[in-house]
């Protein structure tokens, strides 16, 4: 009788959360971590690009209204960065304006959720963009 090889678990999906509201950020961080994701959270966008380089996330959850720099600016900078221009981004925002949604979709986001969003829908979106 031979032992079956033990398969290594696949590495967890790394999620970068950029959310300035402390309650929303902590809740999202806890929920995603509980779901098995590796999560790193930022309260503002000043260290966004250095964090991308260090953390190498599989997906970014991005709020559009941030202090000091807008989510739009981060998204535009991301799309101009050769290393990260194809990184999946899911927007989480309190704004439900159609023009805002169209603007970020033109910048290549893979999802747009109006807060409060349903956690299971967010997980489904993360799984979809990370599956390829």
TrEMBL record:
Pfam families, sorted: Response_reg
Could you list this entry's UniProt keywords, alphabetically sorted: Phosphoprotein
Q: Report the residue ranges that make up the Response regulatory domain in this protein.
A: 14-130
Q: Where, per the database record, does this protein carry 4-aspartylphosphate?
A: 63
For this protein, the record's SMART domains field holds:
REC
Q: What is this protein called?
A: Response regulator
Which organism was this protein described from?
Answer: Trichocoleus desertorum GB2-A4
